[in-house]
């Protein structure tokens, strides 16, 4: 339990003797006299101790008071000198246990003891007592702005005390040691709290949407009586513990001198360290209920040491953004109704060795050449294990230091915005690793994780699960989402592993999970959290997008929270990915028996706002690259890949393609090496790159491919039943009903005179043919266009006869 705060003794009266401590002029002895409020200060006698007082490092001569009328004359210090002042203020006597707790840095509120404090006097005249912790010092003075010195007396455990009548204002502490050294420094315990009552209230309620502004380490100026003092404030949420200290290279990792104060019942601890600048490493040292100290990095750290080092770093940003025009457009634009073609990348292996700043130019040039609207980074929050790809986060508010300073990431995002490229980042609020120096058992007991392992542990991943029922934990995560959207201008968050949050029995056997209050398997607390984070993100940051990686048939993922949905803007269509890859991996001669795999996704394409992902998860761990999945020889593999990409871009929904697949990399991805960039020197792979660039160019220019992604009015089947020929054909429409025809031939042979019904006659231009020679194909097609005639077919008034290239796709638009 926390130690009790110091209790002031009653105000002295004629019947209440009180200790008075004064220091003689040479600061070699302490006069302690007993008086009453109505009696003069009596004399004293001096005794010399031959042993060093604890914490002082020097023998101590004490003038012990006696009820005597003789004037005070110290036997060693006052020979021939004036006696010390006899009108010294009266200080409350501290309980020895309080002094010991403060001296050892385990007091729950050291600021109530240390620093300067007003002391009421019997005369009505105010006085000030100054207490400081300076272990091993021989002498300690408080040096006022006026230059006056107030000598402090050692009262045990390295704690010193002194004072005077009236106010003292600002002061420094001057400590002298037996080795002749002299250390003058400011007193961290003389400053008011750096966190206000409103902030504490919001934290307690779990409703502080800008948590990063008040918790963690912050450079700030504290106003003093005569001047402002620069330094760093530290605040941390650590409820139900006895003591918290900040440690770092600034105090040689000994936190006893920087014990923090608890801020009421909020669970927040605080201290301001004057003079401490950005760049210093630090951690928190927490004394939990077990009586053991644990050392933890700051959950709110905005900068960290480079892994494998684990300390937090006092960060400071002076970055000046240059993307005002982008941010203005973002606020007035709905990305869900516009084109969204995403290039997903793992920054560390995209081009190994490049940091945030160094990656800016080559990444921008590359993405612009491909025509993508957005990039999506695998998680960039700090993580100790590179093999996790960033999905085991230890520093939720700190961009990983592997690639540079946080301002370097701001620069990269700023430059991407300047180039007209949106930025999405993967975000991992579902689970976190067990590293003992991070969030796991933060106070020595479960805090961020659910205390019951049946809800608090994800055994398959070896990680812990956040306690979504704790409002403060939810607040931590909601504020973190806002932090990336607002402080780093990220345009969207892709929320990882949503299914693992929604289901209490996710990847758990019978008996390994706890049902909800209704006996079901739905995680009601996680549902409430997801609704809160999506609603808050959209409310505060219009024009951003929240994307769910949700792999089940949970209903209403993209439905508004007001209708009981989770409130996401987009959901990954994992069913589409699974079914279509299962289809395209088969030899064309067997595809006719699995025609439903390529058509089934159209049945539910408008049940949610979908994104079609070919992500990192599909090209790793033995799954092979996208090109390697394709059947046939090298020519057939490339033809299959080109056709599949054309089908993907034409299908309702946004698109995401992982790096390397845009040029047909043969080897599967590994975070330990870079992409096979040399393949772009081969014409056959450069041709795939050129096709992706063409797909994106047409996609951006043709609203029919994106304007009604989430509306069935934007899609019509033309022929979905030609299973024997492995052919499908459909129309996409924009809001003005302007169509685009997509025809796919997934067989290995050309199909001639394939008739399709169309909405009207006239010239239809072939804007894409994946079998074109320029993309590495055989050149089979329709010579750039066809004439639709007033020949009814398939329930439509006009029709056209097409030549379909083998393993190819055609896009046509009316002229």
TrEMBL record:
<dbReference type="InterPro" id="IPR013783">
    <property type="entry name" value="Ig-like_fold"/>
</dbReference>
<dbReference type="Pfam" id="PF02922">
    <property type="entry name" value="CBM_48"/>
</dbReference>
<dbReference type="Pfam" id="PF22019">
    <property type="entry name" value="GlgB_N"/>
</dbReference>
<keyword id="KW-0320">Glycogen biosynthesis</keyword>
<feature type="compositionally biased region" description="Polar residues">
    <location>
        <begin position="62"/>
        <end position="73"/>
    </location>
</feature>
<comment type="function">
    <text>Catalyzes the formation of the alpha-1,6-glucosidic linkages in glycogen by scission of a 1,4-alpha-linked oligosaccharide from growing alpha-1,4-glucan chains and the subsequent attachment of the oligosaccharide to the alpha-1,6 position.</text>
</comment>
<keyword id="KW-0119">Carbohydrate metabolism</keyword>
<feature type="compositionally biased region" description="Low complexity">
    <location>
        <begin position="1"/>
        <end position="22"/>
    </location>
</feature>
<feature type="domain" description="Glycosyl hydrolase family 13 catalytic">
    <location>
        <begin position="344"/>
        <end position="698"/>
    </location>
</feature>
<comment type="similarity">
    <text>Belongs to the glycosyl hydrolase 13 family. GlgB subfamily.</text>
</comment>
<dbReference type="GO" id="GO:0003844">
    <property type="term" value="F:1,4-alpha-glucan branching enzyme activity"/>
</dbReference>
<keyword id="KW-0321">Glycogen metabolism</keyword>
<dbReference type="InterPro" id="IPR014756">
    <property type="entry name" value="Ig_E-set"/>
</dbReference>
<dbReference type="InterPro" id="IPR004193">
    <property type="entry name" value="Glyco_hydro_13_N"/>
</dbReference>
<feature type="active site" description="Nucleophile">
    <location>
        <position position="496"/>
    </location>
</feature>
<dbReference type="InterPro" id="IPR006407">
    <property type="entry name" value="GlgB"/>
</dbReference>
<keyword id="KW-0808">Transferase</keyword>
<dbReference type="Pfam" id="PF02806">
    <property type="entry name" value="Alpha-amylase_C"/>
</dbReference>
<feature type="region of interest" description="Disordered">
    <location>
        <begin position="1"/>
        <end position="73"/>
    </location>
</feature>
<dbReference type="InterPro" id="IPR013780">
    <property type="entry name" value="Glyco_hydro_b"/>
</dbReference>
<feature type="active site" description="Proton donor">
    <location>
        <position position="549"/>
    </location>
</feature>
<comment type="pathway">
    <text>Glycan biosynthesis; glycogen biosynthesis.</text>
</comment>
<dbReference type="InterPro" id="IPR054169">
    <property type="entry name" value="GlgB_N"/>
</dbReference>
<dbReference type="InterPro" id="IPR006047">
    <property type="entry name" value="GH13_cat_dom"/>
</dbReference>
<keyword id="KW-0328">Glycosyltransferase</keyword>
<comment type="subunit">
    <text>Monomer.</text>
</comment>
<feature type="compositionally biased region" description="Low complexity">
    <location>
        <begin position="30"/>
        <end position="39"/>
    </location>
</feature>
<protein>
    <recommendedName>
        <fullName>1,4-alpha-glucan branching enzyme GlgB</fullName>
        <ecNumber>2.4.1.18</ecNumber>
    </recommendedName>
</protein>
<dbReference type="Pfam" id="PF00128">
    <property type="entry name" value="Alpha-amylase"/>
</dbReference>
<dbReference type="GO" id="GO:0004553">
    <property type="term" value="F:hydrolase activity, hydrolyzing O-glycosyl compounds"/>
</dbReference>
<dbReference type="GO" id="GO:0005829">
    <property type="term" value="C:cytosol"/>
</dbReference>
<dbReference type="InterPro" id="IPR006048">
    <property type="entry name" value="A-amylase/branching_C"/>
</dbReference>
<dbReference type="GO" id="GO:0005978">
    <property type="term" value="P:glycogen biosynthetic process"/>
</dbReference>
<dbReference type="InterPro" id="IPR044143">
    <property type="entry name" value="GlgB_N_E_set_prok"/>
</dbReference>
<dbReference type="GO" id="GO:0043169">
    <property type="term" value="F:cation binding"/>
</dbReference>
<dbReference type="InterPro" id="IPR017853">
    <property type="entry name" value="GH"/>
</dbReference>
<dbReference type="InterPro" id="IPR037439">
    <property type="entry name" value="Branching_enzy"/>
</dbReference>
């Amino acid at each position: 339990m926390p130690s009790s705060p110091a209790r002031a003794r009653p105000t002295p009266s004629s019947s209440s003797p009180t200790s008075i401590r004064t220091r003689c002029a040479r600061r070699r002895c302490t006069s302690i006299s007993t008086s009453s409020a109505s009696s003069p200060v009596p004399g004293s006698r001096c005794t010399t101790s031959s042993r060093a007082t604890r914490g002082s490092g020097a023998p101590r001569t004490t003038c012990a008071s006696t009820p005597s009328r003789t004037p005070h004359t110290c036997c060693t210090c006052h020979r021939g000198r004036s006696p010390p002042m006899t009108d010294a203020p009266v200080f409350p006597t501290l309980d020895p246990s309080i002094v010991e707790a403060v001296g050892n840095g385990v007091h729950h509120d050291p600021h109530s003891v240390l620093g300067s404090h007003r002391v009421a006097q019997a005369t009505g005249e105010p006085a000030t007592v100054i207490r400081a912790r300076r272990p091993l010092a021989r002498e300690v003075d408080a040096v006022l702005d006026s230059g006056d010195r107030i000598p402090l007396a050692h009262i045990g455990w390295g704690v010193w005390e002194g004072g005077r009548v009236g106010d003292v204002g600002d002061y420094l502490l001057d400590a002298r040691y037996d080795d002749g050294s002299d250390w003058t420094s400011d007193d961290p315990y003389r400053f008011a709290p750096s966190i206000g009552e409103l902030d504490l209230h919001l934290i307690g309620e779990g409703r502080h949407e800008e948590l990063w502004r008040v918790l963690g380490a912050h450079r700030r100026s504290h106003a003093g009586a005569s001047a402002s003092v620069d330094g760093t404030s530290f605040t941390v949420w650590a409820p139900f513990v006895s003591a918290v200290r900040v440690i770092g290279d600034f105090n040689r990792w000994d936190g006893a001198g920087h014990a923090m104060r608890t801020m009421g019942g909020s669970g927040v601890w605080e201290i301001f360290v004057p003079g401490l600048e950005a760049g210093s490493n630090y951690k928190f040292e927490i004394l939990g209920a077990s009586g053991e100290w644990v050392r933890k990095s700051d959950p709110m750290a905005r900068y960290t040491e480079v892994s494998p080092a684990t300390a937090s770093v006092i960060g400071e940003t002076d970055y000046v953004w240059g993307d005002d025009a982008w941010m203005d457009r973002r606020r007035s634009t709905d990305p869900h109704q516009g084109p969204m073609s995403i290039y997903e990348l793992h920054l560390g292996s995209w081009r190994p060795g490049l940091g945030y700043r160094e990656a800016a130019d080559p990444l921008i040039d590359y993405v612009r050449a491909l025509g993508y609207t957005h990039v999506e980074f695998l998680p960039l929050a700090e993580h100790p294990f590179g093999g996790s790809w960033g999905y085991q986060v230890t520093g939720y508010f700190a961009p990983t230091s592997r690639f540079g300073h946080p301002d370097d990431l701001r620069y990269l995002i700023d430059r991407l915005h300047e180039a007209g490229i949106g930025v999405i980042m993967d975000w991992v609020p579902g689970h976190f690793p067990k590293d003992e120096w991070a969030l796991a058992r933060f106070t020595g007991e479960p805090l961020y994780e659910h205390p019951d392992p049946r809800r608090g542990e994800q055994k398959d991943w070896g990680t812990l699960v956040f306690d979504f029922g704790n409002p403060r934990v939810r607040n931590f995560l909601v504020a973190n989402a806002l932090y990336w959207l607002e402080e780093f201008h990220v345009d969207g968050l892709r929320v990882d592993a949503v299914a693992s949050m929604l289901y209490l029995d996710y990847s758990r056997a019978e008996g390994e999970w706890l049902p909800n209050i209704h006996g079901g398997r739905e995680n009601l607390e996680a549902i409430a959290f997801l609704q809160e984070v999506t609603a808050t993100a959209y409310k505060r940051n219009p024009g951003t997008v929240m994307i769910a990686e949700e792999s089940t048939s949970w209903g209403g993922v993209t439905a508004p929270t007001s209708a009981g949905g989770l409130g996401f803007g987009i959901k990954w269509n994992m069913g589409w990915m699974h079914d279509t890859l299962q289809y395209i991996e088969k030899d064309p001669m067997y595809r006719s028996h699995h025609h439903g795999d390529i058509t089934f996704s159209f049945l539910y394409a408008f049940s949610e706002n979908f994104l079609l992902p070919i992500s990192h998860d599909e090209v790793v761990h033995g799954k092979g690259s996208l090109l390697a999945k394709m059947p046939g020889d090298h020519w057939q593999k490339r033809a299959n890949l080109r056709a599949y990409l054309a089908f993907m871009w034409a299908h309702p929904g946004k698109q995401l393609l992982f790096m390397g697949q845009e040029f047909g990399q043969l080897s599967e991805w590994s975070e330990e090496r870079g992409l096979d960039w040399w393949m772009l020197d081969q014409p056959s792979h450069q041709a795939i790159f050129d096709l992706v660039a063409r797909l994106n160019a047409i996609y951006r220019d043709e609203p029919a491919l994106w304007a009604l992604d989430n509306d069935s009015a934007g899609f019509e089947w033309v022929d979905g039943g030609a299973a024997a020929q492995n052919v499908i054909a459909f129309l996409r429409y924009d809001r003005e009903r302007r169509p685009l025809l997509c025809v796919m031939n997934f067989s290995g042979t050309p199909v001639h005179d394939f008739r399709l019904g169309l909405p009207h006659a006239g010239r239809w231009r072939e804007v894409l043919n994946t079998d074109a020679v320029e993309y590495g194909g055989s050149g089979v097609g329709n010579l750039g266009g066809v004439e639709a005639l007033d020949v009814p077919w398939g329930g439509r008034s006009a029709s056209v006869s097409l030549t379909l290239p083998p393993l190819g796709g055609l896009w046509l638009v009316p002229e």
